[in-house]
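dumping this here so i dont lose it
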């Protein structure tokens, strides 16, 4: 046995060599710019699903190479631990790749309202309605995802979407996935009229003040929007109404999501905030025959939807999937101006008053405490959607209350996660450190909506301090950073660059220079820190002997960038290969996966896969 390897009982299946190997283990020769290059590992040997050697190439070939060993020449590219997604929605990734693409540049090409109408109309023509009498149809609702009111100059209204169809319901989903717009048919099918009050935790926007509440404009926020997306994506008959979405398409969402995640180097992904019914379907070999995922999938159930379900929470994967706990939803979207703040938005939406601060998803604090209490009692990990600082206050207070009830000094052993934490204040980061709460920042907000934060949402100085990663590091926090797809593409490179450059999409300005972090710290947020967030640091997050052979190959080494704070070198950085559990993953297109799912399962009859996206 050597210090760098394990006693070989058989030869390796593959040996990676001739490239930069960044193990992300500490200490590492790469930690210092002038580190001894002779100490850098030259080779990584993999047998089965496990890394069995890290060290000198000569030693790897001597001890681990056999006649069947495949020598993987990196060709001067960079080998890193596989990227671990700290928060997203696997089915939503597939949804994003399947419905009408309403994204703006650089991910899409929508620039104005007319583009939204055109894209939806094209999708309408290409996707016939689904019904029991039309089993080869795809969706009765015409659905598009990703429009950004900051780009197109506002939200589409029911009248705008009536231009797409006056016969089929239409749903245009905002990029935040917290708002959306429906046409007149959609409003009618949802039963939303001037007599319909706003639901708890949501808003039906109005175009006038007719009694009782005003004529709906078609724009729906939060809980009101949830009504629309739940109906549009309904895969089973309910209350005498037929399904709206072909269930094979819903199954295809998850498979397409896996394909997209592979292309961006992710070997572990999350399905965050789903339902017990969807979890049961994901566990079903009938719905997802082997090989099911080709990524490891960590599932969190919506805390409000658990009911009496047995979640079977476990640290162990079964068929590549495990349930880790529950997700709480405590507020909305800052870019959509529904997140719950302690101070008013710079510019309130519509004709709302100047002191508008957004609103909570759950007004009753006892309900919030009850969700945390149940999670702790069952040893479920709890993660919470908290964008606004008022929502963060609510989460912190609930954690403190339940810790006090249980006589626990903190929650560090439970690793609760503050998802997004966009507007976390310094005192809240101090509370995270004291209580053991892990912040998982949505750092790509600095890129996509940085200018919008400055001009409309928060203004200075609050805008400069969104996703305060540098402050978190200074307080000793192990933060992670996520992409929250479908809200943004699951672009691992953008997740990294947004933390280091903090340059905005529109003006290219640096948003909060003091919150920029190093390339290595950014890499930690998707590797070793993300593994820690999931209680998986013993098997993932670094390239070390005994760890799971989850790897990613990049065309360049970001640690070698001459100016990592500029954007140019990041734009040329690409994922060229993803290895999960020792196996190279195919880079498939989402369309091919979805079509393949339809073709493979069509003859066997539909497998009912429920789908209810939430972000």
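and the seq i came up w/
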């Amino acid at each position: 046995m050597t210090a760098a390897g394990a006693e070989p009982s058989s030869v390796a299946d593959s040996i990676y060599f001739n490239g930069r190997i960044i193990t992300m283990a500490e200490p590492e020769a790469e930690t210092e710019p002038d580190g001894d290059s002779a100490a850098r590992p030259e080779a990584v040997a993999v047998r089965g699903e496990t890394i069995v050697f890290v060290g000198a190439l000569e030693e790897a070939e001597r001890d681990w190479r056999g006649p069947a060993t495949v020598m993987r020449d990196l060709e001067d590219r960079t080998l890193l631990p596989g990227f671990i997604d700290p928060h997203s929605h696997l089915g939503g990734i597939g949804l994003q790749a399947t419905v009408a693409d309403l994204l703006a540049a650089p991910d899409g090409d929508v620039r104005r309202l007319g583009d939204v109408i055109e894209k939806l109309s094209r999708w309408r023509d290409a996707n016939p309605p689904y019904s029991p009498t039309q089993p080869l149809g795809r969706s009765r609702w015409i659905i598009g995802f990703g429009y950004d009111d900051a780009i197109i100059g506002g939200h589409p209204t029911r009248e705008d979407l009536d231009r797409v169809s006056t016969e089929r319901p239409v749903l245009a989903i905002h990029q935040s996935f917290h708002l959306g717009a429906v046409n007149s048919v959609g409003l009618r099918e949802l039963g939303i009229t001037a007599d319909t009050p706003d639901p708890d935790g949501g808003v039906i926007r109005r175009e006038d003040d007719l009694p009782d509440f005003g004529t709906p404009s078609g724009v729906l926020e939060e809980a009101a929007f949830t009504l629309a997306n739940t109906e549009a994506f309904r895969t089973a008959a309910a209350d005498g109404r037929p399904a709206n979405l072909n269930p094979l398409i819903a199954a295809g969402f998850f498979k397409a999501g896996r394909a997209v995640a592979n292309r961006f180097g992710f070997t572990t992904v999350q399905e965050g905030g789903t339902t017990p019914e969807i979890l049961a379907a994901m566990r079903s070999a009938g719905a997802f025959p082997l090989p099911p995922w080709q990524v490891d999938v960590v599932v969190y159930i919506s805390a409000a939807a658990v009911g009496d379900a047995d979640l079977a929470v476990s640290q162990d994967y079964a068929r590549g999937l495990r349930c880790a706990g529950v997700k709480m939803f405590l507020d909305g979207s800052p870019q959509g101006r529904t997140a719950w703040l302690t101070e008013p938005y710079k510019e309130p939406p519509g004709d709302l008053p100047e002191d508008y601060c957004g609103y909570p998803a759950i007004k009753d604090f006892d309900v919030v405490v009850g969700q945390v209490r149940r999670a702790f009692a069952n040893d479920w990990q709890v993660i919470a959607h908290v964008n606004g600082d008022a929502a963060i206050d609510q989460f912190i207070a609930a954690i403190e209350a339940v810790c006090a009830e249980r006589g626990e000094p903190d929650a560090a052993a439970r690793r609760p996660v503050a998802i997004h934490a966009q507007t976390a204040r310094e005192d809240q980061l101090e509370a995270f450190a004291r209580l053991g709460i892990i912040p998982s920042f949505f750092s790509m907000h600095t890129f996509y909506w940085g200018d919008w934060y400055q001009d409309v949402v928060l203004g200075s100085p609050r805008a400069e301090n969104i996703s305060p990663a540098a402050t978190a590091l200074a307080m000793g926090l192990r933060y992670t950073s996520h992409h929250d797809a479908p809200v943004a593409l699951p672009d691992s490179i953008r997740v990294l660059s947004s933390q280091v450059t903090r340059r905005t999409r529109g003006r290219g300005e640096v948003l909060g220079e003091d919150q920029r972090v190093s390339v290595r710290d950014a890499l930690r947020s998707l590797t070793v820190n993300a593994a820690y967030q999931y209680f998986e640091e013993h098997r993932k997050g670094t390239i070390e002997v005994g760890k799971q052979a989850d790897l990613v190959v990049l065309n360049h080494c970001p640690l070698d960038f001459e100016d990592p704070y500029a954007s140019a070198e990041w734009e040329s950085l690409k994922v060229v290969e993803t290895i999960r559990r020792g196996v190279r993953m195919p880079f498939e297109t989402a369309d091919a996966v979805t079509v393949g799912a339809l073709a493979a399962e069509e003859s066997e009859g539909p497998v009912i896969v429920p789908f209810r996206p939430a972000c």
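Residues 42 and 56 are 5 Å apart (CA to CA).
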